[in-house]
Design goal:
The chain is mainly beta and about 170 residues long. About 15% of the residues lie in helices and about 50% in strands. The protein has helices at about 10-15, 20-40; strands at about 50-55, 60-65, 70, 75-85, 90-95, 100-110, 115, 120-125, 135-140, 150-160, 160-174. The two termini are about 50 Å apart.
Length: about 170
């Protein structure tokens, strides 16, 4: 094509004059996009679990769960109870934020009884003798629209008698 239309110039539109910095804009944009997966691998956006425990005369309560989550993430919570003395009616009571904007996929082993009161969920299990260990796994998925800071508390009790309580926080990223 020998002649360009009137509104096009050879310098700007054919030889691409004045676009020397455009290469750097593309490189910086590409690098920024590549940084996101690297940060995810370094656990900046959550997923790796942390462990917290509460010791009492009757039992030790340990909760292992991620402190930072992101929308759509499937994750597991592990709750361990080690009895130091006999516990006739072990119950785990979870604060409402464990279920707020979350999808519970499963609870293993299934509790003998499950109830709710004021948004708190209580899982009741069979007798634990001194030295026995109860491990409960809960599988969740974060709803994609969930972006918040949550308080996720767990209370271990023997019937109506509190034994140990853990107070945890979780941050949910977009």
């Amino acid at each position: 094509m020998e002649n360009l239309p009137d509104d096009l110039s050879v310098e700007r539109h054919v030889l691409l004059g004045g676009r020397a910095r455009h290469t750097w804009y593309r490189r910086v944009t590409f690098a920024a996009i590549c940084v996101i997966p690297v940060l995810a691998l370094l656990n900046v956006f959550g997923q790796h679990p942390s462990s917290s425990d509460a010791r009492a005369d009757a039992a030790t309560l340990t909760v292992q769960s991620p402190e930072r989550l992101r929308g759509g993430l499937m994750f597991q919570v592990r709750v361990d109870v080690v009895a130091h003395r006999d516990i006739a009616e072990p119950q785990l009571t979870f604060s409402p934020d464990w279920w707020e904007e979350m999808t519970e996929n499963s609870i293993n082993p299934e509790p003998l009884e499950q109830s709710t009161s004021n948004g708190r969920v209580t899982l009741s299990y069979g007798r634990l003798n001194a030295g026995q260990k109860l491990t409960v796994w809960l599988q969740y998925q974060v709803n994609p629209i969930n972006v918040a800071h949550r308080t996720e508390n767990v209370l271990l009790s023997d019937g109506d008698t509190p034994i140990a309580q853990l107070n945890r926080d979780a941050t949910i990223l977009p």
